[in-house]
Amino acid sequence: MPQLDPSSFAPQLVWLAITFILLYVLMAKLALPRIGEVLEERKKRIDGNLDKAAALRAEAETAKAAYEKALAESRAKAHALTAAAADRAHKEAAARQQAVAATLAAQSKAAEETIATARAGALSHTQSIAAEIAREAVRKLLGQDIDAATADAAVKSAAAKAN
Amino acid sequence: MSGTVAGPLEQFEIKKIVPLEIGGVDASFTNSSLFMVIVISVVTLFLMLGMRRGALVPGRWQSMAELSYEFVAGLVRENVGREGRAYFPFIFSLFMFILFANMIGLVPYAFTVTSHIIVTFALAALVFLGVTIVAIAKHGLKFFTYFMPNGAPLYMAPLLIPIELISYLTRPVTLSLRLFANMMAGHTMLKVFAGFVVLLGAFGVAPMAIIIPLYILETLVAFLQAYVFTVLTCLYLHDAIHLH
Q1: Looking at the domain assignment, is residue B2 inside a domain?
Q2: CA B181 – CA B206 distance, rounded (Å)
Q3: pLDDT tens digits for range B210-220
Q4: A26–B97: do the CB atoms touch at under 8 Å?
């Protein structure tokens, strides 16, 4: 077995020492710091991004809360405004209605009065015409004159009887 | 085996490429040395080229480089704890060296650095000595209470202490043998079946059909042994830092 040849031990040990020490130095001074640095950088970057994401999220949440508050406020304000407008319109309508009703009542009263006077006028006219007609008729039929007061009284009593 | 087909153990032979001697020590550059250099170059290029852009969103290659980092970092964190942070570069180098040595060894005609007991034993001894030094530096003489399990009755000490001591001292042996034996056995087996393919000619299809799943299995073993070596190193380190 070539492995048990003692004359081959010395060169192998010498070169193992040289190469292994060299490898150790290369790893410790060059390769490992380089890899560690890249990994560290990545970790930092990821952690930084996560932090940033969390901050942005918090910011978005406060913005959302503020927006919702503003929304609720404006909604309440709009509600109050509509209520006030409706109230005012309601009051105005009621007042106008009242005014119109009052005007109408006054007008109808005036009209009624006019009608009443007209009616009274017409009634007295009718009686005087009837008395005149009665006097004329008596003169034509009987050839006799009666005075106005008698004719009036006769018409009045007849009207009272007719009524 | 016949002359045309290389023996299954021939792949483990150490061949000198550049004979060299430093201070009376044979430091020749061999095929093993060549593959050690290839292994550390591939590891370094794999990581540095993978990370060259250092993109925030990694591509495939960068993902693999990061995955190897996070895999070993996870092992250290889970098995050693936060104190293990200081030993992470060492454990990472150990894992990558063994993993790439095992994997590159599976490439046909490549030499497997970790198929030599002296290499795995040197790595295991490094871990053993390092862990012991860490333990003594951290706990001083209290370290030796490690060999007497907590809560065991005192009269059991003569039995328990030798057992604990032996199990502690055999750590580098078991650690190195496990890796070495797995690598050597796997490669020898692959080589034997590959030899059959050549010898049987047209009937070589049968051993070929065995080699394919075997090769997949060996790839798994290559990873698994690197993983086991690293996990055990982490556990030993945990013992050294926390004692029990």
Answers
A1: no
A2: 26
A3: 889 999 999 99
A4: no
